[in-house]
Each structure stands twice: as C-alpha cells, then as structure tokens.
Design brief:
This protein is an alpha+beta fold and 240 residues long. The protein contains 7 helices and 10 strands. InterPro entries: SapC (IPR010836).
C-alpha cells in the first residue's frame, strides 16, 4: 500500500534550508486528499472512524493494513467537498491531519521529520513559522513532531495487531458488490475483513491475549463499521 499517497515531494526538514519556512493552511483545508479513496487508520482510531466509514483491511501479505474507505469510485473522496473541506462532524483520520509533515525512515532505520515541499501552504510568507530567529523549533513545530511520534507509535501497535490476525488466519478476502437506487453498481475488490466464525473459535489463551493487548475493541469497531458500506453508497448517490 502506498504510504505517502497525496505527498508529492518529500524532503527532510532542515533548520538551515527551511529556516524561514512558514505553513499557511486555511482552517479545515483538506483539498489535497480529494482524490484519495481510502487512507490508513491506526487501531486507536477505529471507534471514531467506525462512526463514519467502513474500516477494511487492504494490501497483500505482510503489507496488510487497516484503512478507512472514503469513496466507491477510484480517485474520489466523498468526504471532501468542492471547497476542499472535510465533511463537518466526520472524523478526520490522523493520516490526513499530519499532512504536509511525515516521519520517514532512513537507511539507518532512524526516523527523520520530513515535509512535502510542494504543498501550496509552504509557498507564501505568512502562516506558522517552523523555526525561530535562532533556528530553534517553534512551539508549533514541536507540537507537530509530538503528534507525528504519537501517530507512528500507534501505527506500530496496529502493525502488531495485523500480524496476529494474519498468524491466526482470521482475515478473509471480501469482494463487495453494491448497487444504488439508480441501478449504478460498484465492485469493491482486494479488501479483507475479520471472519467472525473463526473469531468465535479462538481458544481461551488467545482471547485473553487479545484482551490484554486491547485488540477486542478494535475488532468490534471494525465489524461494526461494515454497516457503513450502505451509508457510503447513499453518499455516492447524493453527491453524484
């Protein structure tokens, strides 16, 4: 699964090169995500995401990851309106909120703070500075880095969760055929869901393991979210 999706040109943040860089972003602007049909979500987000989106599993092999499905047509996000704002009241995934920043792993396996230097919000002279006059990180940048680190930690927890689901063979491929009131059909392929029959057959040791790891709420939220497929279909019909 592409991990950088709407990022165009990711470069390491440098306190010298980017000394005068400022970030200006209209409140609520998510226009950069308008062409993204799904985004990764961390397990800790499942309950919030499950109110609005189907939370499915996407990818292959070791690259399987949970995603929030945002649209039924390729390259279309039904939750970003024509003005570039995310639908009011709907959960904005952390993957989207972190943009245009990201932690990228280098050859030494250490993570570096990077930015998409093509983001339009970096092109002007106004907005939040990233560094002060002495080249030190501003409170805004420190808060951003803390958010990136928290997101990375939660995604690592989520990867461990996915690994256990694979090891226990709890995931099944699910092709979904949806047809709206106009007769328009949508075929969703390449996604996986947790199989509740296999889930119910788990032994007590694994059940306790999942309880201690905090996985059960994530699984329940995932299964609950599948009911949002019909809501997504309704949204597709309304927005045309």
């Amino acid at each position: 699964m592409p991990q950088l999706m709407f990022y165009e040109n990711v470069v390491p943040l440098n306190r010298e090169t980017h000394r005068n860089l400022r970030l200006e972003r209209a409140e609520g602007d998510c226009s950069f995500a308008a062409g993204t049909g799904f985004v990764p979500v961390a397990g800790v987000e499942f309950f919030q995401a499950a109110r609005d989106y189907p939370v499915l599993i996407s990818g292959k092999g070791d690259d399987l990851a949970p995603v929030a499905l945002l649209g039924l047509s390729q390259g279309r996000n039904l939750f970003v309106d024509p003005s570039g704002r995310w639908s009011y009241g709907c959960h904005v995934p952390a993957f989207v909120r972190r943009y245009p920043f990201v932690l990228a792993k280098g050859k030494d396996d250490n993570f570096t703070v990077c930015i998409d230097d093509q983001y339009k919000g970096f092109q002007g002279d106004s907005g939040e500075p990233l560094f002060d006059a002495d080249g030190k990180e501003t409170p805004f940048l420190r808060d951003t880095i803390a958010f990136l680190q928290s997101f990375l930690t939660e995604m690592e927890r989520t990867q461990a969760f996915m690994k256990r689901l694979r090891e226990l063979d709890l995931l099944v491929a699910r092709d979904m055929q949806l047809t709206d009131a106009r007769g328009k059909s949508f075929l969703l392929k390449g996604f996986f869901v947790v199989d509740d029959t296999r889930l119910n057959a788990l032994d007590d040791e694994v059940i306790l393991e999942f309880h201690k790891a905090g996985y059960w709420p994530w699984i329940y939220a995932h299964l609950f979210s599948l009911g949002n497929l019909s809501r997504l279909q309704d949204r597709e019909q309304v927005t045309g």
